[in-house]
From TrEMBL:
It comes from Desmophyllum pertusum. One of its GO terms (molecular function) is zinc ion binding. This is C2H2-type domain-containing protein. It comes from the Eukaryota. It holds the Pfam family zf-C2H2. PROSITE patterns: ZINC_FINGER_C2H2_2 (PS50157). Residues 229-263, 505-539 form the C2H2-type domain. SUPFAM superfamilies: Nucleic acid-binding proteins. InterPro entries: NA-bd_OB-fold (IPR012340), Znf_C2H2_type (IPR013087). Gene3D superfamilies: Nucleic acid-binding proteins (2.40.50.140). Keywords: Metal-binding, Zinc, Zinc-finger.
Length: 784
């Protein structure tokens, strides 16, 4: 049997009707009290009729749990002497007494309910758990009516004077529990403070808010027709039509109805942007007058806040030679237009916010990192704007905010009026360090831009010793290209004549100077400027010439007919090695030893070879196998973060998302690149070596193998079976550093320990070899 508290007037009438008609009710979306013992039924809770298979109980007049006994019934012999349950408030706790030759302790407490006040005896371990002014529930108690005003309700005792101990005394703490809250509770209806916990709150609700006339006025038919509305898609109930409409509009359920689909594609209604659209219309007619800002207080500032927004007015000084630069903020304003209004003697200018863009690609790296769509980083690739993170076409978002400048004649200040709410993201300005950079390169013309930032930040840290100040200044040095341009201007002003004649060469497309012709050619070849010349366009679209793949195509034709004979490698010298180089390439022959139980593993390299096939040729007594290179993929997205970082296309990091392969950096579909290189193994009968023939030039990227540390890991875990895998890597690298004192050697070895799962597997094998019966025992326990 479960107790419940009903705080909803409508639910109360439903439950009362169901109780009268003996109809079961299914309760969903309910809450619980703080102690977790009672259910809370409110307006959010849904009451529905269950199916016949959802319940198996029948109605019972007497609940399974014992009902509470009022105190006045104890003296009138209306209750049995044993298994009494009372719920009352403790008014006073008396002094503790020792009885029965110091074996037992007893204390007299005064309790009361709405009917009577009596004195009770509390024994032994029960005494410390009872406090004054608290409401407690006593279950399975025994009583003695030898005196009218004394009722002994100590569990495990019969009468006051017999003092016979029961077996249930050890569970006394479980039989008595506090049902009140340490904190005062607030009424749900009138917010008044109730100090007696749940019982006091229920009494208050019954007396003040729950009238019988009000409950009877709400019947089940009104509830079904007016109060509750059901969503046909997910089956949820709502207390009002407005809640149901909001639920459908926000598409919070997994329904597939027309209204739910419409929620994602529905255009905003006219009234939602009525004010903004009117502003936009008046803006074109230059009728946005100062009466709109009558209620706004003019704020005098030195500079506009970078995230200016809403209805506001600012007053700030300006310089005549740079009128607009004095009122710059972080919003993407469009080009200003001249305007005028009545009673203004001066200059008036108006600008509209340029809005922003939004990336709609759910696989965008920006979205995966920050869990919201990219509205900041974009790149213009005519005729469209694409996301700088993934290269997807961006969706434009219009921003209807406005900004107005008024420069009164003869005044040294400007009034800036702002109207509307922005949908764009404000860019926080960085500290201007151009003066410091110019001064540094005047004194150190041969220094690098990175040295300028390092020296400036180091000086700031020593002077201020404030990390926040250094962090702000570091943002000013983040634009590396800007520092390079400042250095270039400074160096060109010092030796302009020599540069033009001898040392520097100018790019005609972007105007940059280079110290040598080779640098200029590299600049044009990689198309690193925004020029529009034929050479720059040609860099991206140049097709491979026919003669570049002529040999490979002939190889491919011979390979299909299995005519790739040993005569091709006649001019090649056989190289005897212990292992193949990981980046094997070109026309070459290798001779190396092999193990019969692992024939192919002895000649592994870093190329992505496909599955080998059996082959044969004349005058060969032995085994011959042939494999083709599996090729690679290439990301064709010019806005890929990999391309921007390394200045060449990604041919390494890819992910299989059937039915295609995509770039791991930007999510674009990858272009497959076929690799026509071949590898041939020849194992002569009775020999302990293998001849490996390689033909062709690879287009794929070779993967450098890491150092094999399995022997060291095995030895470590044999000596330290309880150690963690991370301890193994730490101890091994520390020993290597002390012995060799070579950082490169430690770095190479660290790559071998990078595979954490491999170290875990080695540890498990070592533990199995040390104690195999332990794993057999665990297997039996788990599976049997």
């Amino acid at each position: 049997m479960q107790e419940a508290l009903c705080y909803s007037k409508t639910k109360r009438s439903i439950l009362s009707e169901k109780e009268t008609s003996r109809i079961p009710v299914k309760i969903a979306h309910f809450a619980k009290t703080l102690d977790g013992r009672k259910l809370v039924i409110n307006d959010i809770t849904s009451l529905t009729a269950p199916n016949d298979l959802e319940y198996s109980f029948q109605f019972s007049e007497q609940p399974e749990e014992q009902s509470f006994v009022q105190l006045h019934q104890l003296s009138s012999n209306e209750t049995p002497e044993d298994k009494i349950t009372v719920c009352c408030k403790v008014l006073k706790v008396g002094a503790t007494k020792v009885v029965g030759q110091a074996k037992y302790t007893v204390a007299n407490i005064t309790i009361a309910d709405v009917t009577r006040q009596i004195v009770l005896d509390v024994w032994n371990n029960q005494i410390p758990h009872i406090k004054e002014n608290k409401v407690y529930k006593f279950t399975n108690l025994s009583g003695d009516d030898s005196e009218e005003d004394l009722c002994v309700v100590t569990p495990g005792f019969v009468g006051c004077n017999q003092q016979k101990k029961s077996k249930g005394e050890d569970n006394l703490k479980d039989k008595v529990f506090d049902v009140s809250s340490d904190e005062e509770m607030n009424c749900f209806e009138c917010s008044s403070v109730i100090s007696d916990g749940d019982i006091g709150l229920m009494d208050h609700l019954k007396k003040e808010h729950w009238s019988s006339e009000e409950s009877s006025s709400l019947c089940s038919e009104d509830m079904e027709e007016k109060e509750f509305n059901k969503c046909r898609d997910c089956g949820k109930y709502f207390s009002a039509q407005s809640n149901l409409r909001k639920h459908k509009r926000l598409a919070r359920c997994k329904g597939t109805s027309h209204e739910h689909k419409k929620a994602f594609h529905k255009e905003p209604k006219r009234h939602q942007e009525k004010d903004n659209l009117e502003i936009h219309a008046n803006m074109s007619n230059r009728k946005l007058g100062p009466e709109i800002w009558k209620t706004c207080k003019v704020q005098e500032v030195e500079a506009l806040p970078y995230n200016v927004d809403g209805l506001c007015v600012y007053k700030l000084p300006f310089k005549k030679e740079a009128m607009m630069q004095s009122s710059v903020d972080g919003r993407p304003w469009g080009r200003w237009k001249s305007s005028s209004r009545k009673n203004l003697n001066g200059t008036r200018r108006v600008a509209e916010c340029g809005g922003t863009y939004e990336c709609v690609n759910v696989a965008c790296p920006y979205f995966k990192t920050y869990w919201h769509k990219n509205t900041v980083q974009f790149q213009k690739l005519p005729p469209e704007v694409v996301c700088s993170c993934c290269g997807y076409s961006a969706k434009p978002i219009k921003c209807l905010a406005r900004k107005i400048w008024e420069f009164p004649d003869g005044a040294s200040h400007v009034l800036v009026y702002h109207y509307g709410t922005h949908k764009c993201t404000a860019i926080k300005p960085s500290i201007d360090v151009s003066s410091e950079v110019t001064k540094f390169f005047k004194d150190n013309s041969s220094a690098k831009p990175s040295q300028c930032a390092y020296e400036s930040l180091k000086t700031t840290l020593h002077e201020t010793k404030d990390v926040e100040e250094v962090y702000k200044k570091a943002k000013g040095y983040a634009d590396y290209k800007k520092i390079q341009n400042v250095k270039q201007k400074e160096s060109s002003s010092l030796c302009s004549e020599d540069m033009e004649e001898k040392e520097f060469n100018k790019c005609r497309d972007c105007g940059k100077y280079f110290s040598a012709q080779s640098n200029l050619r590299k600049h044009k070849r990689l198309a690193r400027c925004k020029g529009t010349s034929h050479e720059h366009k040609k860099a991206f679209h140049k097709e491979p010439k026919r003669h570049q793949e002529k040999d490979n195509l002939e190889i491919h034709a011979n390979m299909s007919n299995r005519k790739l004979g040993p005569e091709i490698w006649k001019t090649c010298k056989v190289q005897e090695v212990e292992a193949l180089p990981y980046n094997v390439d070109g026309l070459c022959v290798y001779k190396l030893p092999f193990k019969k139980e692992a024939m192919m593993q002895s000649s592994v390299d870093g190329r992505p070879w496909g599955r080998w096939k059996s082959s044969s040729r004349k005058n060969l007594n032995g085994t011959r196998r042939v494999a083709e290179c599996g090729g690679t993929y290439e990301c064709v997205n010019v806005a890929c973060p990999y391309f921007k970082t390394y200045w060449h296309k990604n041919t390494v990091q890819f992910q299989k998302l059937p039915p295609e392969v995509v770039c791991s950096c930007c999510g674009y579909s990858a272009k497959p690149i076929k690799c026509l290189a071949r590898k041939i193994w020849e194992f002569p009968d009775g020999a302990s070596h293998v001849l490996v023939y390689h033909y062709g030039t690879h287009k794929c990227t070779a993967i450098k193998p890491s150092i094999d540390v399995s022997s060291e890991v095995t030895k470590f875990f044999k000596d330290n079976s309880s150690a963690k895998p991370s301890q193994c890597a730490y101890e091994s690298l520390k020993t290597t550093l002390h012995e060799t004192k070579d950082v490169e050697e430690v770095y190479k070895k660290a790559k071998g320990y990078a595979d954490y799962k491999k170290i875990q597997n080695v540890k498990q094998k070592v533990l199995e070899s040390i104690n195999p019966f332990l794993f057999i025992f665990l297997f039996i326990i788990i599976f049997f």
